[in-house]
Design brief:
Layout: H1 2-17, E1 22-29, E2 33-40, E3 47-48, E4 56-61, E5 68-72, E6 79-83, E7 91-92, E8 100-105, E9 111-116, E10 124-129, E11 135-137, E12 145-150, E13 157-161, E14 181-185, E15 193-194, E16 201-208, E17 213-219, H2 223-226, E18 239-244, E19 250-252, E20 259-266, E21 269-274, E22 281-284, E23 289-292, E24 295-300, E25 306-313, E26 320-323, E27 331-335, E28 339-343, E29 349-354, E30 356-359, E31 364-369, E32 375-379, E33 385-391, E34 397-403, H3 406-409, E35 427-433, E36 440-441, E37 448-454, E38 460-467, E39 470-477, E40 483-485, E41 491-496, E42 503-509, E43 512-518, E44 526-527, E45 535-540, E46 546-551, E47 571-576, E48 583-584, E49 591-599, H4 602-607
Parallel strand pairs: 1-27
Antiparallel strand pairs: 1-49, 2-3, 2-25, 4-5, 5-6, 6-7, 8-9, 9-10, 10-11, 12-13, 13-14, 14-15, 16-17, 17-18, 18-19, 20-21, 21-22, 22-23, 24-25, 26-27, 28-29, 29-31, 31-32, 33-34, 34-35, 35-36, 37-38, 38-39, 39-40, 41-42, 42-43, 43-44, 45-46, 46-47, 47-48
Amino acid sequence: MRSFLIVVIGLMLLEAQGPGAQTIAFNRVEVGQPEIFVAASDGSNEHPLLPNPDRDYDAIWSPDGKWIVFTSERNGSADLFQVKPDGSELKALTTDPAYDDQAAFSPDGQKLVFVSTRDGGNANLWILDLTSGRIQRLTTGAGGDFRPSWSHDGKWIAFSSGRGKPMPFSEGRWERLQLADLYIVHPDGSDLKKVPGNQDFCGSPKWMGGSRHLVAYCMTAQQTLANRIAKPGPGNDTRLMSVDTMTGASTEMPAVGVKINPSPLDQNEIGYIRKDTPDAGIYYLSGRRGPRGPIRTASWSPDGNLVVFHKRVPGTPVPLRKAFSGDSNYELQIASGGTLPSFNRSGTQFVTTGFPNGRASLSAITVTTVATGSAQVVYQDKTSNALAGSWSSDGRKIIFGIGEFAAFFDGFHSEFLKPGDRIEGGAKVALVNADGTGFQELTSGAGNNAFPSFSPDGKRFVYRTFSREGNGLRIMDLDTKAVINLTDGYDNFPLWSPRGDLIMFARLSGGTYDVYTIKPDGSSLRRLTNGKGTDAHMAWSPDGEYIAFASSRMGFKDEAAYTDSPQPYGEIFVMRFDGTGVEQLTDNQWEDGAPGWRGVPVRQVASGSPTAR
C-alpha cells in the first residue's frame, strides 16, 4: 500500500510540474535557416516555393515537371513532402519519426529512393512507391549511404557511401573526417557493387546520358573537414569527375573552387554549386551563372529552364526554440545566442558562452532568464576568451575558464600534433557572481585550466588541466586553494554530480572519446560508454540519476559539405548514471551537442525514491 501511495504522489508531482519538468537544452550548429526557392536557370524571377516556409531543404523536380519533392521539419522530424511548383497542394509523403531526406525520382516518376535512419538509426536507402505508399529497404549496414540517383533507364541507383570506411580524426583535431566511395545497385537491391576508383571521398553521383557514366565531386580526406563549414578557405578546391561505373576510369572537368551538387543538364552542360567564394551560388561549366547566395542543393526542371534550390536565410533568434525529440518524456530545446548551455538549479536561468558583438569581439559569459528571454553579459575579458560557465548549487556564482582557447575559437587553424600543444597560451579558472560582480581568478600557472564544475556544497570544484606537469582532472578547495590530482589521463569536461558522489568526464583513449565516472576521492573509476563513437559534452540530470551527452555513434547522415557544421554527426543521447538504458533523442544531419539539463526526469519522479548506489 505504501509503495502504491508513493507512485501516485510521484505522478501527481509530475503533473503539477508541467511540460518543462524534463527539458534538455542543447546547441545546434546551423548557419541561418534553410528555405526553398524557385528561379529561372539564370537566377531571374527568384521567389520562395512556399508561402509559409519552415526548415525546408533538398528539393527535387519530378520527371514530368508537375511536382517538387522536398524535405521539411515542419511536423517535427525530417520528412518528405510533395508540392506543386506554384506552392499548392502540399502533402506529406512520410511521417516516420526517423530522419527521411535526400530523395530522388525514378525515371517514370512512380517511385522515390531516399535516405532514412528508420529501423536501426544508420543512414540507409529506402524506396517509396508513390502509388501504393509502400516503403521498403534498399540498403543496410553501418557507415551511411547518401545522395542517391536513379539511372535514366531505371536499372541502377547510384549513391555515395561510407560503408566499410573508418571515421578517422582530422590531423591534429578531434573532428571526424568523412570517407566515401561511389556505389551502384539495382532497384530490387541486387548486384550491389562499388564503383572502381581510388579517391578518399566522392559524393553526389548523378548519371550522365545512359547508365554507365556518373558525374561526382571528389576531394581528399582532410578537405572533408575544411569544406564542411559555410565558407571554406583557399586551397580546398574539389574536383568534378566523370566516372565510368564499370572500369573506374575518370576524367576531371574544368572548373575551379569548392564545388558540390553536380547536375548534368544535357550532353554539354553541368550545373553545380560553389560555396567558397563571396559570389557563391549556382555555376555552369559553360561559364554562365545561376541564382546567387549560400545555396546548398539544386534541381532543374526537365526542360532545364527552371531550378529549385534551398539556401540559408537569416533566422529569427530566440533564447530557446523547441526541437523534435525521439522520446516525449524529454522536451528538447535549442539554445541560441551562445554555446554550452548550463542551467541554475531552479531552472530559471542558463549561462552560455557567446560573442555579444559577433566574432569581432572576445567570447563572454552570458546569463539568460528563461521567463523573459533577456540576456546579460556577466563577464567579458579585455584580452582573453571566456569559456564554459557552470553554476554553484545556490545559483549565486558562476565558474568558468578564461584563456586563448584557440581550439574552440579559431576555426580549424589550430592543430594539436603532440600532447603539449593542448597547453596553447594557458588558461585559468575564474569565478564571478551571477550579477557580474566579484570577479576573481582561482588557478595560476602556465597550464590550460578550464571546464570547472562546483561540488554541490560549493566548497570545491573540479577542472581539467593540460600542463607540462601532466594532464587530467584536478580538484581545488576554495578556502585553502589546495589542489589534488584526481586523474592523469587525456580527460576533459568534468562535471560534479548533484548528489556529490560522482564526477563524470570524457576521456580520450584508444582513438575514441568515452564517458567515465569516478568518485571524488579517486576511487571507483568506471567507463560508461564503449568506443562506438565520440561521446562527450555531458550533463547531469538535477537528481543525478541520468546523463545527457552528445555522440557520433550513428555516423554521418549526409555528405558533410552540405551541412555547414564541424561535427554534423553529433546527436543527443541520454542514459542512466551507470551507463545503462542508452536512448537516442535527436536524429538529423545537423550538429547537435553540448546539452544542458533543466528539470527532473519523468522516470525518477514517478519512481518515488532515488536509485541506491
